[in-house]
Amino acid sequence: MTEDILFQKLVEIFSSKYVSRERNILNNYSKDLSFYPEKAPKYVAWPTDTKKIEEVLKLANELKFSVIPISSSSGPRHHGDTIPHKDNTIVLDLSNMNKILNIDRKNRVVMIEPGVTFGKLIPELQNKGLRLLLPLHPRDSKSVLTSALEREPITIPRYHWDSSDPLLCTEVFFGTGDLFRTGTAAGPGTIKEQQATGQAQVNPMGPTQFSPFRVIQGAQGSLGVVTWATLKLELIPTIQKVVHIQSDTIPELLNLQHELIKYRLCNELLILNNLNLACLVKKNAQEITELKNKIKRWNLLYIIAGRGKLAEDKISYLEGDIRDIIGDLGLKGLISENIINDNDILQVLSQATPDPWRLKLKGGYQDIFFLTSFEKITEFISIVEKEVPQDLGIYIQPINQGTSYHCEFDLYYDPSNDAEKTNIKEKFLKISTNLMDSGAFFNRPYGILTKEVYKRHDDSTQTALKKVKKIFDPNNVLNPGVLCFDE
Amino acid sequence: MMDDEEYKHLIRRCIRCSICKWIPQLQIKSKKYATICPAIDMYNFHPYSGGGKIILALALEMEKIKPSEELRDIVYKCTECGGCDVSCKFLNNLEPLEIIIKLREKLVDLGYGPMPKQQQYIDSVKKNNNPYNEPHENRLNWLPEDINIDPNAQVLYFVGCTSSYRRKEMAIAACRVLNAAGVPFNILDNEEYCCGSPVFRTGDINTFKDFMNKNVDAIEAKNIKKVVFSCAGCYDTFKVHYPLYRNYNFEVKHSVEFFNELIENGKLLLTKKVPLTVTYHDPCHLGRNAEPYKEWKGKVVNLMPLISIHVPPKPKRCGTDGVYESPRELLKKIPELKFIEMERIKEYSYCCGAGAGVKSAFPEFALHTAKNRIQEAEDTGAQVITSSCPFCSTNLQDAIHESDSLLKYYDINELLMMAIGITDEKLKEFLGEVA
Amino acid sequence: MVLENEIFKDFEDIVGKNNINDGKVITTAYAYNWCMEFFNYMEDKEPSPFSSIPKAVILPASTEEVAEIIKLCNKYGIKFKAQSTGLGPWNQPSTDNCIIVDLRRMNKLVKIDEKNLYAVIEPYVSGAQLQVEAMKYGLNCHMPGAGPHVSPLASATSMAGPGFTSPSTGHSARNVLGVEWVLPTGDIMRLGAIGLKKKPDWYNGDGPGPSLRGIMRGWVGAKSGIGVFTKVAVKLFPYPCSTDFTITGKSPNYGFKIPKYLRLYVMDCKTYEFLEEVMLKVDEEEISFMCSHLSGSGLAAIFSNSLQGLIGKAKLAQLKVPIVILITARTDREFDYKQKVMDNLIQELNIKDIIGKSYSPEPVFYAEALRSNLGLHGFITTGSFQSSKGGSDTAAVCLLSTKMNIPLKMEYIKSGAIGNDSGKGVWMTSYESGHYYHMESPTMFDQTDDHSVKGMAEYMEASNQLDLLKHLGAPFFVEGTQMHELFGPHMSNYHIWLRKIKQAFDPNNIADSGFYISPHSKE
Ligand SMILES: Cc1cc2nc3c(=O)[nH]c(=O)nc-3n(C[C@H](O)[C@H](O)[C@H](O)COP(=O)(O)OP(=O)(O)OC[C@H]3O[C@@H](n4cnc5c(N)ncnc54)[C@H](O)[C@@H]3O)c2cc1C
Ligand code: SF4
Ligand code: SF4
Q1: Which end of chain A, N or C, is more open, meaning fewer C-beta atoms within 10 Å of its C-beta?
Q2: B435: pLDDT confidence band, cut at 50, 70 and 90?
Q3: From the CB of residue A385, how many other CB atoms can be counted at a distance below 10 Å?
């Protein structure tokens, strides 16, 4: 088949308005902020409904071309996971599918299409007294659904009941082009019929004896194309109190956050080094540097909250109990007042931003992130700090109700400075593999690190994942080459 | 005890929940000491548990399996300790222990029980009036000359075969304490026979009744008001099983009950310090299994389909009324003795492993169980483990020896002797024999 | 059904002579299970409490032994069925070409990780054992409603997972971290961070990349149809109140020194509509350790430990639509706050709490609630029960399902086949502070009565049909090829995908799929 015929077929499916082979457009999809080698897709298509996704996937299976689904409408991508590996690749840009299908206050759930962004969804939910479980200050143009699909850590660990949260049910086209609904959304009955009996697709588990949403999640678009998902929501508190605790050393902050999560005493709970905290709350490099120099190296942020008539009562109980804990740990002197405006912190922890905070310092960054246990955090910090004495942002996020920790190291650099870029790239690889060798668990492996990660993992996991791939995408049409899957 | 009809009904009611493998769920205090059933702890396959034996009873009844030596071995690898029974009955309405006893009876009837080793004991009971193949006339060999026996006393000390022939120190200690308290007491001399327990437990009810009658007749002929036992097994047989077949006109007491009363009444003075840390092992036959059957005459009333109740309510034998407090109170009265509990106590005490013919037929099983118990006692930090049953005594001491434990075993009456301040040369001799 | 000598010998070499048995007596005993009679009847077999008799029973002591056993099964074409506590018909072989792998000897509590709030356990650590050890660190574990005597590993990896404390401790499947898994081929796989070649640890079980926990199980588990789980890390929770746990008295009349900071509320919502409102409100406040709806008779049962005791609780049984809430706290402040929230709700909703007024439970109830022992009260009336339904989504669908089931259940009650609970006997609980709900309908029957057994089987089938046709969520017991093929076409054709998983992960069809799915549409 000639290329023209393929293009023609795509036009038949999507209409000419929604397919493109223009170089400048394709180039947008050829690179990202990672060090992954550039490569442009052959075409880009913008489906507007699910039928088109089905058709293009069936066609891809028939004609053996690759499909990379992406959801975020604009703005920088980071991890190399959507850059084509193969020549014959079509990017399926789902950003036009951006409907909020249902906001359900009663059942605290929202159903959204992939193109719905944080910027759009947060205020809509706010109007109904609801809130998303957010990753740390996301870009407003980022797809909410993708963030959940990527298992990005959320900042309220007590609501993180399962590492899959806040993702609940999904509708998905497997690589075969077959439509599927995961969790209770599977049925019996259509979504309409389910809704007629009062269901709201709030249980992600199943159908019956497997939970396919768990393999779709974390698959970087290599197993299925999700067309909508339901996400778990929480109610917006009436009162929120920000607490900022600083210290020159991290162990006491780790101990305190352990108590706070153990007893589920606070909502947002995270640790940042001075640079990352400054990046989050300040606008530009100068302000960031000033603040960074003013605050101590380690910063624990948490928010206690109350809702409704008894909000004050709840706050005073939490304050009292936390005061006792802080007293017991001997950390009384560490609470800081007014160095950073509480509202600025609240804003960062509850809103999206048009201005990605990790780009504010130098215009570029490379993040290294992985999971680990409480005891190993400090060891990993020393490993990275030894290699990167400056411009290093650190973010420690307890996840999954305090059973593990997302550790993130942001290596800030100036992308226009080639030497710096090369240096960072080298360091990135070296540090990452160093961390891996010391037991860091890179559970979301992206781009150039992927091979290193799987090399260090039990072979049986790879074998099993390949079996899963063979089941849901037997012809390897979806995002080939990511994870441990063949190109 | 249950009749055949009830047996056939109940064996279909096990829900295989395995609760009978554990002490009552609410009593679990550690991972290490959470189990109750020595048989499943040793052999692991489900049929060894109380519930598993109920399944065997059903399978046999439904002719899914035939009587066989394989079946017999499993059914007899059980100390009839009744631990399963207590745990099951916290919520369920089964009778695991009675079903096990009845299943054994059935195997005897079918010609597959008891175990050959146990048969030797039974034969000896029939021949020698004791299971140990000892001459009946040697029954009193343990008795030191200076013990005062009062032929006219209204209190009788029933020695039992094991104390008479194997655990003589226990008999001596009991008598010394009685003497020290100034309680006139008698013994049956050569009119004392095996209480019948070994025969009963294998289902030979007629022979059992013969022994019961011989003993009861002899006691009643002496105008005895109270019979005191230092053997938990004899006590249990008199208290729980004799009344199923014959009423008698005397009171039965285990020495721990009787001596505790004597102390309380000021008859027995504990003046000597016994600065030991001591833990107490509840013998199954003095604890949960010493709870008598309560007579029930009533009817089953069908309340609605599938649901019927007993009117008046039928008493459930759950081990609630065993003798638990007397030994503890007694120990706590000994000057400077520090009493400390194990995790599994009273109605959910872990068996020593010797009962129901296990020590003779499956000595390695008995020892395995006792070692588990000794470990538990050691974990309390105690120096001494004490109890009030000659079978427990033998088996626990074997385990102490086998596991090179530093723990010491004393019969509870020996501790009393120390507190009273009596020593006994002959007793020392016997203790030396044991060591 | 015994194994050939040479094959027996091969197995024996793995576990040693005391840990394998193919004798008639032991294998037959392993063929018995609770509810087997009516499960047999549902499959058009005689309503006998015995299943197919396994060829042998084997007791491995380690993961490596399990792996070797399964490799031998593959070599000789013999199926296996794994069991932990082994309670329930789903433990039974579906064919006589099957051995039972009883995991009883694998009973290590590998670790309690106090700082990372989880525990690693083997299959035969019971819920109570895990709980008492966790309590030493002020922590608690989730247990399924089945009770503290069953295996948290089995529940987490292979079974269902609702429990009475689900509002605060979630669902077994969602508390899973690292997993060690012997695949049906005999290969050992370790999920998540425990699969790292260097410095493996248990704190997370997802990835790298997709989480194979989704293959491991769903809302319910694969019931040994996808291999054997030999270790699992499960999340721990703060112990809800003071860890002082003092039982007094003797069985069965236990007393309990009620620890500080526990308060029970029982309120009659009168209608299901109002119950929904109350339950959602309470759950949104995030205050309850337990929050369940039971029918009046179910409620009376959880407060009684005998049929006789139950009869004395007629007053409870008369409650129309009760809700049971247990709040717990760690400090005075927390306790005061939570009670204040409840007071406010009670006022706002104009509803009455009967506890301490017209009814006060025996203290032992609190001990059973803390130890998750309440489910076992289901047996005290007719001797046996099993739940129909078991779907899980919103409170609304749970209650609709409850209502729609009443006429159906009444039919079978009238015929005398099942115990009379006015058709309303359900247990409904919220999870994760009300983010989802589940309802099941415990149905009492008498396993010794043929009419009852058959009626129970017919009722179960009718109830499943109702759920399917009226879109009330998939019941628990959609497992086994027949049920999957019945429900699959109405549920995204999931059975096709589940079958592909079975084929890919169990190429020789060695893991008994009687309660999973066979690799072929007709087996
Ligand atoms: C009174 C009562 C109430 C109940 N309430 C609830 C409830 O509220 N919530 C709930 O979830 N369940 C409930 N159940 C069902 C209950 O979950 C199961 O009976 C119980 O979890 C079984 O646990 P177990 O340790 O006995 O596992 P098992 O019975 O040993 O195993 C359960 C299943 O998993 C398989 N399996 C076990 N271990 C492994 C393993 N290591 N690897 C692979 N497969 C394995 C078995 O083959 C079996 O199919 C209830 C049961 C009863 C009797
Ligand atoms: S005997 Fe009782 S406790 Fe044991 S399994 Fe059967 S019902 Fe359960
Ligand atoms: S009587 Fe004792 S040894 Fe026998 S089955 Fe019951 S608990 Fe086990």
Answers
A1: C
A2: very low
A3: 14
For the residues of A92-119, what is the DSSP string, one character each? Answer: EEGGG---EEEEETTTTEEEE-TT-BHH
In chain C, pLDDT over 90 holds for what percent of residues? 96
Q: What is the ipTM of this complex?
A: 0.97
Atom of ligand 2 nearest to the CA of B88: 3
Planar angle of CA C395, C398, C401, nearest 5 degrees: 150
- Span A292-309, pLDDT tens digits: 999 999 999 999 999 999
Quick one: closest CA in B to C125, which residue? Answer: B31
Q: How far is the CA of B83 from the centre of ligand 3 (A)?
A: 6
Q: Report how far residue B16's alpha carbon sits from residue B4's, in angstroms, rounded to the nearest whole number.
A: 22
The preferred substitution site among C158, C293, C512 for testing ligand 1, maximizing ligand atoms within 8 Å of CB, is C158
Residue-range definition of the domain harbouring residue C147: 109-238
- Report the alpha-carbon angle A447-A449-A453, nearest 5: 125
Q: How far apart are CA C493 and CA A182, in angstroms?
A: 11
**Per-residue H/E/C for C426-452:** CEEEEECCCCEEEEEEEEEECCCCHHH
- Supply the pLDDT for residue B429: 57
Q: How many domains does chain C have?
A: 3
pLDDT surpasses 50 at C122: yes
**What percent of chain B is predicted at pLDDT more than 70?**
97
Instruction: Identify the DSSP state of A138.
Output: -
Residues of the domain holding A220: 1-236
Touch between chain B and chain A: 3 or more Cβ pairs under 8 Å: no
Q: Is B319 in the pocket of ligand 2 (CB under 6 A)?
A: no
Positions of chain A with pLDDT lower than 70, given as ranges: 1-3, 73-76, 336-337
Residue A483 lies in a domain: no
Which of B:152-171 have CB within 8 Å of C?
A: none
CA of B41 to the centre of ligand 3 (A): 10
Identify whether residues A196 and A257 lie together within a single domain. no
Helix, strand and coil content of chain C, in percent to the nearest 5, comes to 40, 20, 40
Asked if B392 contacts B281 with a C-beta cutoff of 8 angstroms, the reply is yes
Structure tokens at C206: 């997802």
Give yes or no for B296 touching C (CB within 8 A): no
Give exposure, C137-173, as e/b (b: 16+ Cβ within 10 Å).
Answer: bebbbbbbbbbbbbbbbbbbbbbbbbbbbbbbbbbbb
**Atom 5 of ligand 2: nearest residue by CA position:** B16
Among the partner residues C189, C217, C471, nearest to A211 by beta-carbon distance: C217
Q: Please, is B297 exposed, middle or buried when counting C-beta atoms within 10 Å of its C-beta (0-12, 13-18, 19+)?
A: exposed
φ, ψ of residue B7 in degrees (nearest 5): -55, -50
Tell me how crowded residue B338 is: count the other CB atoms within 10 A of its CB. Answer: 17
Cα of C23 vs centre of ligand 3, distance in Å, is: 21
Cα dihedral C369, C370, C373, C374 in deg (nearest 10) = 10
Tokens at residue A42, please? Answer: 């052959």
Helix extents (H) in B265-353: 325-333
CA distance A194 to chain C (A): 6
Q: Could you write out the DSSP letters of every residue in A355-407?
A: S-GGGTTTSEEEEEEEEE-GGGHHHHHHHHHHH--SSEEEEEEEEGGGTEEEE
Element (H, E) at A256: helix A251-262
Is C220 a domain residue?
Answer: yes
How confident is the model at residue C1, as a pLDDT?
A: 58
> Is C116 in the same domain as C93?
no
CA B391 to chain CA centroid, nearest Å? 8
The CATH topology of domain B118-264 is: Rossmann fold (3.40.50)
Query: Is pLDDT above 90 for C308?
Result: no
Q: What is the Cα B365 distance to its own chain's centre?
A: 17
Q: How far is Cα C156 from Cα B201, in angstroms, rounded to an integer?
A: 43
Does some domain include residue C499? no
Q: What is the largest CA-CA distance in chain B?
A: 69
Q: Which residues, at least 6 apart from B3, have a Cβ–Cβ distance to it below 8 Å?
A: none
